[in-house]
Amino acid sequence: MGVGLAGATWAIARKDLLIELRTRTTFIAAGVFALLGVSIFYFAWDPTAIPAVDLAPGVLWVIFTFSGLLGLHRSFGLEQESRAIDALVTSAAPRESIFLGKALANLVFVLAVQAIAIPAVALMYNLPLGGTVLALAGFAVLASVGLVAVGTLFSAMAVNTRMAELLLPVLALPFFVPIVMPAAQATAKLLAGRPADEIYSWLKLLLAFDLVFVFACTMIYPWTFEE
Amino acid sequence: MCRAFGARTIVDGVDLLVGPAECLAIFGPNGAGKTTLLRLLAGLLRPTAGAITIGGEKLSRSPLARSRVGIISHHHMLYEALTGRENVQFAAQMHGVEDSNAVSRSLERMGALEFADVPVRALSRGMQQRVTIARALVHDPDVLLADEPYTALDEAGTRAVAARFSAIRGSGGSIVLVTHNAEEGSAAATRTARMENGRFFEAA
To answer: Which ipTM did the prediction report?
Structure first.
């Protein structure tokens, strides 16, 4: 009897997504949060002072970051409710698969929220997305990989504490900066129609942080178990 | 082994060997350290001093050793949005069980097949406990660590647990049982022990 990394990762991701599909609580909360955030920024915006293409990237990445955090806390919170995490960590599955499965489910969750947020921002700020929509979606995927890697690790670390909801953003947000900064810069340059070279340099930085965070978080995660 | 939380020693100098076909029942008052001992054996807690091995391997570091162990806790350890069958199926996947009938068989042995497709949140505590035990035993473990397995079970459920314990011992498996149910615990046990203030006293 044995279970491989890929099989266990997929089973854990599938289980988490099935639970979210059945309950829909976190997705609805994160979707509503994203729409409210976009609306608040819109009403606080003076279009005569700041052009939409200058403001929208910042709005987009603030919304992505904070709405993603809602789902990240839920990720390990649902394991704690009846100590299902004990069954998971004492199973034969490689412990890295728990991290990767959770991160994969979180990635789908964050991308689903972004699928609401990007059109909402484009609509409210009248952004000329046109041919840039695919590139923007690519940036969103790349940045989400790094965000969920860091967020999933800190969710696992914070979940056993008394103030997990408060501790997760405090721990994770500083590590989100190296991801959000190049993503926001690349988005801004894309929307401003800057040359591809300027965008690629930020994308390379984003990709580098993705690789570092995914690798480091996967390696660190198994050490977060034993109390 | 020992385990302390800050200045408080919860498990104090326990030296324990459980062999094949043995069932060790541990009794003791609340706060004696029984659950902590079981969590140490399961690899969920790290001992402050000493070590725990199963079949010569350290449980927390060896997927192979973990695949030989089943755990029943006084928490039901189930996902309430999923059905009983989905929970047991997930546990089977996590243990790499390839037998496609293993899930139904495990549920049937615990008398949980008839409500296997109902979400766990809609089940009574006794029904949830049957699913919990089916989940813990779906991979036919050699070693079972059971903390209050009789919780909320009716007579039929208790009989089903006793039958499963006999089957595990019959196939050479080992059981460590923590319970306040002296009658059922003594009936299942081949050895009994008592814990008090973290110390372990085995009956002669």
So the answer is: 0.90
